[in-house]
Amino acid sequence: MHALDDAWRGPPLSAPELHHEFDWSRGTIGFAVSVNLALYGLTAPFAAAMMDRFGIRRVVALALLVISGGSVATVWMTASWQLVLFWGVLVGLGSGSMALAFAATVTNRWFTARRGLVTGILTAAGASGQLIFLPLLSWLVEHHGWRPAAVTVSLSALAVVPFVWLLLRDHPADVGVAPYGGTYAEKPAPAPGAARRAVTVLFKAARTGPFWLLAGTFAICGASTNGLVRTHFVPAAHDHGMPVTAAAGLLAAIGVLDVVGTVASGWFTDRFEARRLLAVYYALRGVSLLFLPMLLAPSVHPPMVFFIVFYGLDWVATVPPTIALCREQYGEDSAIVFGWVLASHQVGAAVVAFLGGIARDVFGSYDLVWYASGALCAVAALMAMVIRRRQGVDSGGEGAHVAG
Known about the structure:
58% of the residues are buried. By secondary structure, this protein is mostly helical. The chain starts with 14 loop residues before the first helix and ends in an 18-residue tail after the last helix. Helix content is 73%, strand content 0%. The protein has 16 helices and no strands. It is globular, with a radius of gyration of 20 Å. Helix 2 packs antiparallel against helix 15 and helix 9 runs antiparallel to helix 14.
């Protein structure tokens, strides 16, 4: 199920096709995408609290139904505000309810040992949605238009609902087992006041320095991935004469490599200090983005392949160490705190998705946005190193240690 998550925010509603059919500017389309990205993040902490109140299965099943309805409704849209409502609001809310806070909640409940590795695998499963869906959706857009692609997303979401309802369980106690690496515990009572708890946890965490550092670094993470590359790479490559299917294929390749990079990052997180891993990841990502404007061309050439490999391995490698730091700093509230940190990730993505489209309209290219994002990644690397480690707390799985 989690492998489908990235498909909801991919390119079924491709900017060039919408621009040509409706004569909407890149900025207008980018605004709809930015609403989607922002709600994807802002929904996450409330979804994590709702999972504590109503259960994972109910929240995820409802989210899939909302995604299905929002996606299919775009088929009949005729005005830009409908794009914002259907794809921006509905799909954003639905996908946000299955966001990375879902991975954090599942990891916290079902695993005591090897949490970093499990987080990496679940995160990589989400990223693999790119591999499965992007080539298919891009082919549909190019040969049949964007409407069949939107219907495909809707039907895919709807098809998963029965499996979620029949197979997904909320807690290890539901099937009479202990968390992996831990001891058996009874299922806790539902936590009342989901919305109030999400806000209370935010106010409590906001009084601490690590929260703002984690939120700041993850905002830059979102700006340099979902906001920039996921939203604007295909249009930028198309500006340089590259076919849309080829550019989407490169994004799909990032999804393949991200599976490897994120699982490896989870393994590293169980063994090395999370803040140092974050600093390395952001620094490497920033360097790669500074070179991208020189690599865009009408065809795929070896230097571009090298960028895709390098960048793909780093795509969401930041997630396992960020979740580990939330767990280290905030304990039982870590899933909700990570939901708010993820909200900052998506706000950063939304800002760049919107400003990237404006920059393209004003300057005629995306070059300035690539360079600015690379510089921001350098700032994120410095911020990660400032986060202080809580003494005596194991941020990874059982048996983890901190590399000096």
